[in-house]
Specification:
Blueprint lengths: L1 H20 L4 H10 L5 E7 L6 H16 L4 E6 L10 H7 L4 E5 L22 H15 L7 E8 L3 E5 L6 H4 L3 E4 L2 H8 L3 E4 L5 H6 L5 E5 L2 H4 L8 E4 L8 E7 H6 L2 H35 L3 E4 L2 H24 L4 H16 L1
Helix pairs in contact: 3-11, 5-11, 5-13
Length: about 350
């Protein structure tokens, strides 16, 4: 009896000793290691594009690449289609921490980005890849103070805006009084051309065209497929000679960015630098698909005559002048910004 008690007591004491000293069994050690593993940082990403849109797909690919490059130290949950923050609330949502990362248009918060607004001017962008490259280069050069409340990862910008309508527009006279969906600076372009600008984010445009709230929309041609708007228009007027763009941010909550380990920040920065041109190429691809769909549906594409093109260019010239004057009034280098922009667009068109 005493022998059995002694053995039992020794076994108990040995087990206690193992627990205290940390000398646990392999199975227990594995379990302990699993429980103690560092959990990945989860980030939320609000994207205003619908999940089927090529730019939402690029955002998803970016997120997956970030996860891979960080060794899964980061996990990114994407909320597409404005399900976390609406398009015009996305930037402020990032500032406030509603989402950790956001993608939307600078133009949706008109007046908030007075220098960046210059990227949307009607300077005749040739394509989305060029617009994207130029936007990133100018932001890198000028480092606008208006962007300092978040950590900007990169920007991308669509190809030249065209006029998609429910009735033919061949001259400025056809445009006079026409209700045209436009946003940000493009609203000023519409007004300069004699139309009536109606501001709204892209997700609301289909229904507005369908119900007659607007008669036309200023947009990149990709929109006619990507947002299905070809279903509710009949003609496209090629206005690429005054082609504006719309710059879009991919930006991160500043405090969240600063809380990340340096190696994670480095990985995100590297992936972002690679992904900006991928978005640019995606805009070109989407524009090609948009033009193909317009043709497939039998919609008319109207080319402005050289004389009419000159009239349209003359009409929008005051928009560029007003941008420079308003920037100067705020102590911003709008004149230099526009000069750089025009030079780069001119080089891209060669």
């Amino acid at each position: 009896m005493s022998m059995r008690f002694g053995i039992a007591g020794f076994s108990f004491a040995f087990a206690v000793c193992l627990g205290v000293s940390g000398l646990v069994s392999p199975a227990a050690a594995a379990e302990k290691e699993q429980k103690g593993a560092v959990k990945p940082v989860r980030l939320t990403y609000s994207v205003f594009f619908p999940p089927t849109h090529i730019q939402a797909q690029r955002a998803t690919e970016w997120a997956k690449e970030v996860e891979a490059r960080t060794g899964n130290k980061v996990k990114i949950d994407i909320f597409a289609g404005g399900t976390l923050t609406k398009a015009d609330q996305c930037y402020q949502g990032v500032v406030d921490g509603i989402s950790d990362i956001g993608m939307s248009c600078f133009a949706y918060t008109r007046g908030r980005f007075p220098l960046i607004e210059g990227l949307d001017l009607p300077v005749g962008y040739p394509d989305g890849a060029s617009a994207t490259r130029i936007a990133n280069e100018l932001i890198a050069k000028y480092q606008p103070a208006e962007l300092q409340d978040t950590h900007l990862l990169y920007v991308h910008a669509h190809g030249p805006g065209v006029l998609a309508t429910k009735k033919p527009v061949r001259t400025l006279e056809d445009l006079k009084g026409l209700k045209v969906r436009a946003t940000g600076l493009s609203a000023k372009i519409v007004e300069a051309l004699g139309g009536a600008a109606v501001g709204m984010p892209q997700p609301e445009t289909y229904e507005a065209l369908q119900k007659g709230v607007v008669d036309a929309t200023f947009c990149p041609v990709e929109t006619l497929k990507g947002w299905k708007q070809a279903e509710v228009i009949k003609q496209v007027t090629d206005t690429s000679a005054i082609g504006y763009s719309t710059a879009m941010f991919v930006t991160m909550n500043k405090a969240k960015w600063e809380s990340l380990p340096p190696d994670v920040r480095d990985a995100i920065a590297a992936v972002s630098a690679e992904w900006a041109p991928k978005h640019g190429q995606a805009w070109n691809q989407a524009d090609d698909e948009g033009r193909a769909l317009v043709k497939e549906l039998g919609h008319e594409t109207i080319a402005l005559t050289p004389e009419e093109t000159a009239r349209w260019q003359e009409r929008v010239a005051p928009v560029l002048k007003a941008y420079v004057e308003q920037a100067a009034a705020k102590g911003l280098p709008g004149e230099a910004f526009l000069a750089d922009l025009r030079k780069q667009v001119g080089d891209a068109r060669k």
